[in-house]
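Q: I'm building a small set of examples for a reading group on sequence design. Run inverse folding on the following structure and report the sequence directly after it, with nothing in between.
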């Protein structure tokens, strides 16, 4: 799988540092190249959503959804499609009745 041209070595280094220092990242996932690439795509997506003013709760929900959708697909394509869907107001969110208001 080829990484998009807009992703720089500095981006990967920044994301690697974040992934490596996150105690919630399972070591087994972080050591798998495909999972690592998924995490990079998720980091990119989170940064893009943040720039668009998306709140942290929705960012995590969207990143989680990308993680679920990527199996059998290129994680970068899934992340970019999800970002464009967010920007074009094409995402529908279910109301979480257990979430604090």
């Amino acid at each position: 799988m080829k990484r998009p041209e807009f992703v720089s070595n500095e981006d990967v280094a920044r994301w690697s540092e974040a992934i490596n220092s996150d105690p919630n990242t399972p070591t087994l996932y972080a050591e798998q190249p495909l999972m690592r690439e998924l995490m990079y795509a998720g980091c990119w997506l989170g940064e893009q959503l943040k720039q668009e003013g998306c709140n942290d709760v929705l960012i995590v929900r969207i990143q989680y959804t990308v993680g679920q959708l990527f199996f059998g697909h290129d994680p970068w394509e899934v992340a970019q499609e999800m970002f464009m869907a967010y920007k074009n107001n094409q995402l529908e969110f279910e109301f979480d009745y257990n979430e604090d208001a």
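The helical segments are 9-21, 27-31, 33-51, 56-69, 75-87.
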